[in-house]
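Hello Y.,

Per our agreement to keep a running log of every chain we model this quarter, I'm adding this entry. I've kept the format consistent with earlier entries: sequence first, then predicted structure.
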Amino acid sequence: MRKVFHRCMECDEIVNNPICSECLAQRMRIVVGENNRKLAKEIKGIDTFGETYCIFCGKSVGLCAHCFSKDIYEYLLERNVELAKSFRAMFDFNLRTKIIDFE
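Predicted structure for the entry above:
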């Protein structure tokens, strides 16, 4: 019997950390807000449809934690390099192995 895999709409990898972007964004806003409230307010989740469900709220997950974290990391990197480095340490989701290090 063939198993159904639930894949990310951006990278096509299996969603192995089923956390929706809104739940991630909520946690990211707290961490970023400790250093920069203005940037924290700009972090928002996006609605996506997937066949995997968030372990926190039960919403559909179509974007993996890595891709969402990468997008937020790149946004922060353009605005505050030190904050981006701190963010990367907290919300890694394999960011260190899949992106260029800008140090």
